[in-house]
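Hello everyone,

My group is preparing for a crystallization screen and wants a predicted model to guide construct design. The compound we'll soak is flavin-adenine dinucleotide. Before spending weeks at the bench, it would help to have a computed complex in hand. I've included the protein sequence and the ligand's SMILES below. Output in structure-token form would be ideal because that's what our pipeline reads.
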Amino acid sequence: MSTQPARHRVVIIGSGFGGLFGAKHLRHADIDITLISKTSTHLFQPLLYQLATGILSVGEIAPATRLVLRKQKNAQVLLGEVIDIDLVAKTVTSELLNMRTVTPFDSLIVATGAQQSYFGNDRFATFAPGMKTIDDALELRGRILGSFEAAELATTQSARDRLLTFVVIGAGPTGVELAGQIAELADRTLEGTFHNIDPRDARVILLEGAGAVLGPMGPKLGAYAHRRLSSMGVEIQLNAMVTDLDARGVTVKDADGTVRRIESSCKVWSAGVQASPLGRMLAERSEGTEVDRAGRVVVEPDLSIKGHPNVFVVGDLMSVPGVPGQAQGAIQGATYAAKAIKAGLKGQAPQDRKPFKYFNKGSMATISRFSAVCQVGKFEFGGFIAWLAWLALHLYYLIGYRSRIVTVIQWFVTFLGRGRGQMAATEQWVFARLALELVNADGQDSELAGAVGAPPSVEQAPDTRTG
Ligand SMILES: Cc1cc2nc3c(=O)[nH]c(=O)nc-3n(C[C@H](O)[C@H](O)[C@H](O)COP(=O)(O)OP(=O)(O)OC[C@H]3O[C@@H](n4cnc5c(N)ncnc54)[C@H](O)[C@@H]3O)c2cc1C
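Reply:
Good plan to model first. Here are the tokens for the complex, ready for your pipeline.
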């Protein structure tokens, strides 16, 4: 019989910035790590919009977590959606198809991030996908390119106009990046490739409920982005609240109360986020822990939850004043939690931990090729230099040399030439999500059926979620 004491067991939930960087930071520790995630990859969300607009492929921005951690002998990776966290028994229950796995832990890092919020109008998702997952981005690519294809075949001007009108809802960094890229796709890449339509006739409309583009980045950078997008032909409509959405368009209410309609087949939602439901579950199970309005866990100064000093919540799921929902917040939070776990192994008591301190390294957003905005401390600048800084930073944080090399090649193709290397799109990318929803709704929801075009075969498709 072994006399070796059992190794400390760390469970990490999520393979995003928080989960992966937490695991990597613990690579030399004498522990056993189990990283559980419902996705098999580490997704680099900041470049999702390039996946959606045909610049990059899935492989470049989403390497398999298992391969990334291949050499880390103290870590194993489990694919599965966490459905339960028992803080008393100290176990995490995850599910893959109909297989359940219960994993015990001594320390837990929860980094399950956030998902799209439709502010209570979840049915909007049917017509305006968000930009959070690989599926979202590929569906969007299919919808964008599919709209041009359908416009080529349209027999009336009104149908052509509707198909060539792209509405991006929300003028934060993601909305700005997407609007800019759809405009460049139409003006540069697709120009001259159709017979019946001129892709340059496409309208790209950026709707924002507040009074400025890139509000959190301040008036100077917001104004810069506004000017640059306008010069590219993007129509920016501020103080415009979306009140309804359907397959054929958007209903908008302006600040003066005017209600109007924009006919558009292709809409994208980039207006809000809500935390993963595991945040609320943790709060309900640890007395005194609360969630904020977005469902993020209000953590203790050491990122743990009340009464459970070895349960850490990091990244987009944590609510810490002054820490934005950005990659840096997740990386720094995960690094802090990993250090606290390592210090605990050396005997440090939880009450002796120094509070988590966030170091703001700044933020940036691209607008178009050769143009970005950048904020570092008091410095705010826009233009080519900001774009170069954006390029370098994103390459630095991409995981893997191969991804970096291929990404640089793809960027050369796109930014110096007119082509894009990833213009494939399939019908399934566009319809699979809706079809699955239809299956789950037992084919009874007539609105969904209308959106999908009610293909009869869809109702017989196997429900892969339940195996
Ligand atoms: C389109 C877009 C653009 C962005 N651009 C930028 C940018 O330019 N700069 C920047 O700093 N930040 C940007 N962000 C924000 C940044 O990506 C996030 O702040 C960061 O990813 C948060 O990391 P995280 O680990 O908390 O969550 P995520 O990276 O979202 O990872 C969550 C992980 O948890 C897993 N998961 C979720 N629920 C479960 C469950 N129940 N069971 C098991 N696993 C689960 C998911 O599969 C995923 O692996 C952007 C985000 C988006 C969506």
